[in-house]
């Protein structure tokens, strides 16, 4: 369906089709009171880690993107066991990314194109994402995601314990406004050029009350007024000028946060420009961080890209064809074996920090 509101509008629009409302999808796929309580609890735990009240290390780990819910669930079960094993030292959150920001063009994630064939069945994508989150949340594993489209949070945010705004959108006013109203802690990545200032500005903007155009649960355009998000924080992911996880980079970022009157605790992404997008290098970066955290009170968390099978495969939505099971179709990931060993190293680093009494 496409409606022309005037002879001069929608000239480049092929179609506009209504989607089910957030309220309809939430009613179809509700959250039990037990799961809702466990999500609220995990948000509090993440807050406590970010504020230095809980001395564990936050680890946000999982596939670069979820493209096959079955493989994602198999991964989640293994991660839930590992999270349980390391619960004294690590607070593990599963990366469940359904929306991919692209440098130019490419598959934009399971919500945008759930059949991976360019058919863009977003109604199915929203339901598939929500069903996946329900299933993982029922395992007791907290979930993290990148919020990219400003409308999709209405469909899934109640199931998310930690949110990220990506390097390509940290400077966007729309994403800062959105974050100011989200109910969970939200981390802002430094820019793709390595600039940390945009993320500090983002934390300040998202921490402030905002009024903007949004949608309500009924899918209607709405005036949204927020209180500001008290739990914004910085994520260092490296940039075009190289990695930014060295002790000097971390001290510099932490001082900039303090000067801006913001929380000095930050998260380091071991992937992306911090590992030159090389999944083998990512494990080395994570191990360097495991050593570094024992002497640093400011590294509150680490991000890892990991899936069942290491590496990545090419997805061509126009060509079809079979995909290897459990391997990323976006950025290359560490495989499960290496991930399990890296989690052990991070747990040991977290324990050493506690024993050394680093504050
Ligand atoms: O993490 C994912 C990617 O790095 C990001 O979405 C950009 O991907 P692209 O450069 O392949 O488009
Ligand atoms: C896109 C991502 O990261 P960045 O914004 O750092 O490129 C991601 O984590 O999937």
Could you characterize what this model shows?
- Its EC number is 2.5.1.54.
- The structure is a single chain.
- The protein has one domain (39-354): Aldolase class I (TIM Barrel, Alpha-Beta Barrel).
- The chain is built from 10 helices and 12 strands.
- The protein has helices at 22-28, 33-50, 69-85, 122-137, 153-156, 173-181, 197-207, 247-259, 279-293, 336-356; strands spanning 57-62, 90-95, 143-146, 162-165, 186-189, 211-215, 221-225, 232-236, 266-269, 299-305, 309-312, 327-328.
- The strands form 3 sheets. It has an 8-stranded parallel β-barrel, surrounded by 8 helices. A two-stranded antiparallel sheet has the order 6-7.
- Helix 9 (279-293) links the parallel strand 9 and strand 10.
- Bound molecules: erythose-4-phosphate and phosphoenolpyruvate.
